[in-house]
Structures are given as C-alpha cells and as structure tokens.
Specification:
The complex is a heterotrimer. Chain B has 10 helices and 10 strands. By secondary structure, chain B is an alpha/beta fold. Chain B is globular. The model of chain B has no long low-confidence stretch (mean pLDDT 90). Chain C is 81% helix and 0% strand. Chain C contains 12 helices and no strands. The longest helix of chain C has 35 residues. Classes of the chains: A mainly alpha, B alpha/beta, C mainly alpha. Chains in contact: A-B, A-C, B-C. At the A-C interface, helix 2, helix 3, helix 4, helix 6 and helix 7 of A face helix 2, helix 3, helix 4, helix 6 and helix 7 of C.
C-alpha cells in the first residue's frame, strides 16, 4: 500500500505544444545570435571608452558657457524649449483626437475605433522620421524638432487621454443632462473637471519623454544639444562629449524630479 | 403637472421595462414609488425627464410633451425637472459651490457658462440653496471631502439652485446609513412643503415610504398595481405589490438593527 | 435670513496661485518660442514644400523591398539580442534596487540612483557613443539597446518586486531556506509573469528603436533613410517607412497577445 497515492493523484497534463514553443524559441535565438558580426570591433575601443569616462569625470568646464554662443547651456536651453513647445502643441492637438477615440463619447464603435487607429498610426511613426519630413518644410533647426515632437506625441497622449475619458464616471454627465445642459456645457461641467488632473499628469509624463527625445533630434539637424554632441563625437573631442553627457544627465534628472513631484500632487 | 399617458418601454432585447402606464401627478404632491428591484421604478422615473426614451405613449410636463420635444425645447423642459441620484453624481474634484452652480447652466448661454460668468443672483441662489440644506460652510470644499450624506445634500442644493418645479429622486438614500437617510428625507419633505415642489421618490424601504409619502404608487413587472393615498397602503397592499409578504430587509428600522 | 447666510458663508479662496501658474506657463511658452525661432507663418509657407515631399513619396517604390529586406531582418535581430541581454542583466539590478529584498538603504538607494542615471540617456545617443567607441555596425546598436533595456526592465521589475506578497518569503525563511532558495521558491513564482511581460514590452519598444539606430551608423534599416534621403529618392523612403510600420504593427500584435496570455 506504500504507493497508494499514485493511483489517486493524477499528474497535470502538460500542454502538448509546449515543446514546440521551446523549439521555436531556440531556433529564433540561434538565428539571432548567429547573424551578428562579432568581429570588427575597433582595437581602440577600450582607449576611447576610457577617454569618454575621463571626459565625464574631468569635463571641459570651459564649454559650459562661452560668450559667443554655441555652448552647453544654450544647447540645453534649446533642448528644453523644443520639448516644452512640442509638448504644449501635442497636448492641444490631441484633445479632439482623444474625444474622438473615447468609446463613451460617441454613439458608434466605428467612430472611436477609427480614432484609435489614427492614433496608433501616428504613434508608430518615429519622431526622428517626422523631423526629417519637417526639415524639408521649414528647414533645419529647432522649429522642425518642435513640430516633430508636437505631432509624434499626439499618438501616445491621445491614447492616454482617451483612456482617461473612458474611465471617468458617467453619473455627473447624467446629472448635467437632467438639469437641461447642452453638449458643450456637459463637457465643461461634468467631463473636463473629471479628466483634467489626469490630462495634466500625462502631459508632464510625456514632457519627461520629450526632453529625452529632444536631445537626439540634433543628430539629424533638428536642433537641441544633439548637434554639438555629434560634432564632438566625430571630431573625437572626448572631453567635450563628457561635459555634454554630464549636462544631459543633470538636466533630465532635475526635470524628472520636478515633474514627478508635481505629478504626485496632481493625483 | 405630470401626465403619463399609456407609456410602454421595450428594451432592444424585447424585454418589457414599462407596460401601459397611466398616471397623473398634481402640483405639490409627494409621491413615493415602491416595488421590487427590476419592477421598473428607475425606468419610469428616468422616462419623466427622458434620460431614458420610451417606446410608446406620451409624457406631458406642465402642458408640453417631453416625448416629442427635441434640442433646445427638450433642455428647457429638463431645466424645470431636478433629479437626485443614488450615487449623488457630483463632480468629485470640484468645489461644492461649482457643483451647485452646475444646476444653473440651463439658464445661460454656452459661452457665459464656460467663462464661469454666473450672475450675482445665481451665486446668491446657490448659497441660499446650500443654506437650506445646512451645508453652506462647505461651499469651497472639494466635493470628495464630504461624507455621503453631505454629498447628497449638495445634490439637493443643486436641484434647488436649478429652481426646479419637479424633483425626481432615484433611490436617494440607498447609499446612506439610517441616520443620514432620515436627514436627507427630512430635507426633501421640507422642500416639498415649504416651496411646493412636486416630488417623486423611488424607495426600497416600506416604512420610509409610509412615513414621508402623501401618495404611494406600487409597480410590479412594469405595471402600476397600486395607486392611492398613503393611508390605503396597508401591509396587504405591499404584499400584493411585492408578490410576497414583507421581508425584514424592506424595513429601514429592522435592517438597521 | 440673508444676513445669517452672509455670516456663515466662507470666504472664496484666493485665485492668486492659479494666475501665477498661468503667467509662468505663458512666459515659458513665449521664451521657448523665441529660443527655437518658431514661427507659424514659416510653417504655413513651408507646408507646400512638405506636400510636394509627400507627393513624391507616393506611390512607394515597392521593388525596393528586396534591397531592405536583409536590413529589416538585422533590425529585428538587434532588437531581439539587445532585449535578451538587457533582460539578463536587469535581473540582478532589479533585485539590488528592491527595498523589500535588499533591506539595506546603503545598497538600494545607490543602485536606484545609478539606474536612474542610465535611464536619462536616450537610446540613439547611446548608439552614437557606442559607434564612436566600437565603430560602425550592428554591434554598437545592440549594446545601446542592451543598456536601454536594462534601464527599462530593471525599473519596471523592481517596482513590481516591491509590491509582491511577503508571506511566501516569510514561509520559505521559516522552513530554513537560504537566500537562493527563498528567491527561487518565494520570489520568482510571484514575479515571473510580470517580468516576461515587461521583457516583451521592451522588445516592442526596441524594435522601433532599432529601426532608427542606423541614422548614427549603428546597423539596421535606419541606415537606408540616410541613403535614400541623400539621393532624394523619396519613393524609396516611403517604402522603408511602410515596411517598418508593418513589421512594428505585426510584432506589437503578437507581443500584446502574448502579454495578455501571461497576465
């Protein structure tokens, strides 16, 4: 009778296709890792990394402020300005999109569905590619960056805003209908007060992301601190690379802290 | 004041919500509608200000048909009908005063209300309404910082500021404890008597219905099975409305113990 | 009755704070507009140029597909390898950052600080730096994605770790398990589904990122943007964009289905 539990307890059946998934994973990984060229690393790699690290720890302080312009502070200020304007533009533009995409703001699933499609289409369009297009329209410079961030952020903000609208309580809307309010008044007195804190919080969150994005726009000539960084990298001015990286890290850390503190207060 | 003529409502699935209802409510009455949940109490109440559309019949408010009204005309009729909800339906993140002023928006142009330019008289009216329900000192407090009973009183103030001639209250005390229930029902009754506002209340508790109503309407499966002054509503009548003897949890005093 | 109401009426709160916020915001906007030389008349005048550009992009040159197919495969490969390496490194980092597991402020505060520093640098900048260090090719791109993935996965994971139920950990400790055993039986079962979901989410982001890393020479399909735009072959550019969109949408779809199943 020692093994009596054997008869009573059945082993749970493992999914029959489980091994298939494992095999597929292994094949994908072999394909991925085998396809990488592991050669061609520059012999100077270690030396350069060391140079950049030394650059960060003993930066080119003179570059922080140069009287004749093109210095770190102005580059960072430009980056900040691009992200502020880009965020504000996208916030304004995305509100109608959000109401279009929110299911509880329209009568038909098709309307909100199409709104969501448009938003996810905008979202998949990388901002750097948008910046390339805007450079064609307004020429290279910060304004192209502003427009690219402004348009690209609409995709994500619009979706977050739409979620916020979908999650609001319907009760106050009903109460306003019962008082004889028209659509605009319902929107203003029952919907906006409910969603506004969420909207502001998401806007700040997107601003944090946009500051990061704004630092890379310079790579293709759309303004900000990215341009001098690319120049410093290609001219092997490692001290300057160091100070620019340091500047970016400090700026973003401060902005994250401020924005995070405000967001905590909002909710 | 309110004429409900042969009203029926069929839901898209084919279920009958209301079936051939004929009622007439005079000015100043305090009507309580009772019935099991699902009997159509809420549907009937929401048909009166057309938060729900009916499929047959006609509802006439002070001589004009709300069933046929559209757009501006519909909003104008709704302006005269205040509604109080089980879950209060305040905007929680805004101040009490602004919630009360929301009751005034039907009187003004869109632009004016959006700019927040309520006339002095409106603000006076809002404060008086808050005073009437004894909550004026909370005017600038955010609504979500009030207790349930206080929130419901703000909702009543909103209806008062609206200068409604009719008040519809859909289970106004279902989310409240017995003590605040009494306060809120007292407020409603006082307003009904002092201002002569016609009041229709949906209630679950039978003893409350008896205590406050001048007239009781019993609904069962979407049909009116009793309609008469409160004196005629005996225990047998309630048993008839509910289709079974009265149970403990239908009495507030019993349920509270 | 009116006088009584007047007496009990509370004073309206001051609006000074709101006005101040509005003024600061407007000043910020105004300053930003000057700094970036933004002018909407410029946008208005430039719009025809952009429409011309869009017109040249259509119809896309479908035959270009053959040229960029391999680059697209490389892009996916980069994202896959970068995400995987990042996920592996992220595990110990996340454990160090979780206050309920490390229990020592001396460890988790510095760990979080370093993690936040890593997260400040965007992937494209990392790639540019790694290209300067290692030379052109997909390898610096993979390293950039790895570092970026560590930042994201470790942050999401340590935040999830801090919300796990302490009960199983106490139970394992009470049966005499050592650190590794507590981790294996008390922590992993609670966190593995979340972790897998975060990895998939990071993979989605990395596919998008990998598609543009080529702009700084870090491999993948992004390189072809430079080529086609440089030669003003916009119909080819639009083909790249469309191809990338399709791949991204497919991967997003598969990944989000998998994530739904996990949680």
């Amino acid at each position: 009778m020692m093994n009596s539990w054997h008869d009573r307890v059945q082993k749970p059946k493992k999914s029959r296709y489980r091994w298939l998934i494992y095999v597929a994973l292994v094949v994908v990984y072999i394909w991925a890792f085998a396809g990488i060229p592991y050669h061609g690393i520059k012999e100077t790699a270690g030396q350069i990394s060391r140079a950049i690290l030394t650059g960060i720890f003993s930066p080119d302080w003179d570059y922080v402020y140069l009287p004749d312009g093109e210095d770190l502070l102005r580059g960072l200020l430009d980056t900040l300005a691009i992200s502020i304007l880009g965020t504000v533009i996208s916030t304004i533009v995305c509100v109608p999109f959000a109401f279009w995409a929110a299911i509880n703001m329209s009568n038909s699933r098709w309307v909100s569905g199409s709104g969501k499609m448009v938003l996810s289409f905008i979202r998949t369009f990388p901002e750097i590619v948008m910046a390339i297009l805007f450079i064609k329209a307004v020429g290279p410079g910060s304004f192209a960056g502003v427009l690219a961030l402004g348009l690209h952020s609409v995709g994500m903000l619009g979706k977050l805003f739409a979620d916020e609208v979908e999650n609001m309580e319907h009760g106050p809307v009903e109460a306003l209908i019962a008082t004889g309010a028209n659509r605009m008044q319902i929107l203003w007195f029952a919907v906006i007060p409910q969603v506004l804190p969420g909207f502001l919080s998401y806007t700040l969150y997107r601003f944090e992301i946009n500051v990061r994005s704004a630092t890379i726009l310079g790579v293709i000539g759309a303004g900000g601190i990215g341009t001098p960084l690319i120049f410093a990298l290609s001219s092997r001015n490692w001290d300057r690379v160091g100070i620019i990286l340091l500047g970016i890290i400090v700026m973003i850390t401060i902005i994250d802290m401020i924005s995070g503190a405000i967001r905590k207060k909002l909710v | 004041m309110i004429e409900i003529n042969n009203v029926s409502k069929t839901y898209p699935g084919g279920t009958k919500g209301l079936n051939g209802i004929n009622l007439s409510v005079a000015k100043g009455e305090f009507v309580v509608i009772v019935g099991l949940s699902g009997a159509g109490k809420s549907t009937l109440l929401r048909s009166i200000n057309r938060l729900h559309d009916i499929t047959e019949g006609d509802i006439v408010i002070s001589g004009s048909s709300i069933t046929k009204a559209t757009g501006h005309q519909l909003r104008k009729i709704r302006r005269d009908i205040g509604m109080i909800f089980q879950s209060f339906n305040l905007v929680k993140r805004t101040t009490v005063l602004r919630n009360v002023l929301a009751g005034r928006v039907g009187y003004h142009s869109t632009l004016r209300t959006i700019l927040g330019q309520f006339p002095k008289e409106d603000i006076e009216l809002a404060f008086q309404a808050l005073d009437r329900v004894n909550i004026v000192e909370k005017a600038y407090t955010r609504a979500d910082q009030l207790s349930g009973g206080q929130q419901q009183r703000v909702a009543i103030a909103r209806v008062l500021a609206q200068e409604a001639k009719i008040i519809l209250a859909d289970e106004p005390v279902a989310s409240l404890d017995p003590l605040t229930t009494k306060q809120v029902m007292d407020d409603l009754k006082r307003i009904n008597q002092e201002l002569g506002i016609t009041t229709i209340v949906n209630l679950h508790f039978i003893d409350l219905a008896r205590q406050y109503a001048t007239r009781i309407i019993g609904l069962r499966a979407g049909e009116v099975v009793f309609d008469g002054p409160v004196e005629q509503a005996t225990d047998d009548v309630f048993a008839e409305i509910y289709g079974r003897p009265i149970q403990q949890d239908e009495l507030l005093e019993e349920a509270a113990v | 009755m009116n006088t009584k109401v007047e007496l009990r009426r509370p004073k309206a709160p001051s609006r000074f704070k709101h006005y101040l916020t509005a003024i600061i915001l407007l000043l910020l906007l105004w300053g930003s507009a000057i700094q970036t030389e933004s002018s909407f008349s410029e946008l208005f005048h430039g719009l025809p140029n952009m429409l011309d550009l869009l017109r040249e992009m259509f119809p896309p040159k479908w035959s270009y597909f053959d040229n960029i197919f391999d680059a697209m495969l490389e892009t996916i490969r980069m994202a896959l390898v970068g995400t995987t390496l990042g996920a592996i490194v992220a595990i110990p980092v996340a454990l160090l950052c979780a206050s309920n597991l490390t229990k020592r402020g001396l460890i988790y505060y510095p760990a979080r600080f370093i993690l936040n520093l890593i997260r400040t640098i965007p992937d494209l900048l990392l790639a540019a730096i790694f290209v300067a260090i290692f030379g052109l090719g997909p390898l610096p791109g993979i390293f950039a994605l790895t570092v970026f993935s560590v930042g994201l996965i470790a942050k999401l994971t340590y935040e999830a770790l801090e919300t796990i139920d302490q009960g199983p950990i106490e139970a394992m400790t009470s049966v005499g398990a050592n650190y590794v055993q507590v981790f294996l039986y008390g922590v992993i079962p609670q966190i593995q589904a979340h972790f897998a979901s975060y990895v998939l989410y990071t993979f989605e982001i990395n596919v998008r990122a990998a598609a543009i890393l080529g702009l700084v020479g870090a491999g993948g399909i992004g390189h072809y943007y430079e080529i086609t735009l440089g030669f003003l072959e916009y119909d080819k550019t639009s083909m790249i964009i469309i191809f990338t969109l399709v791949i991204v949408l497919i991967i997003d779809y598969i990944s989000s289905k998998l994530r739904e199943k996990l949680l």
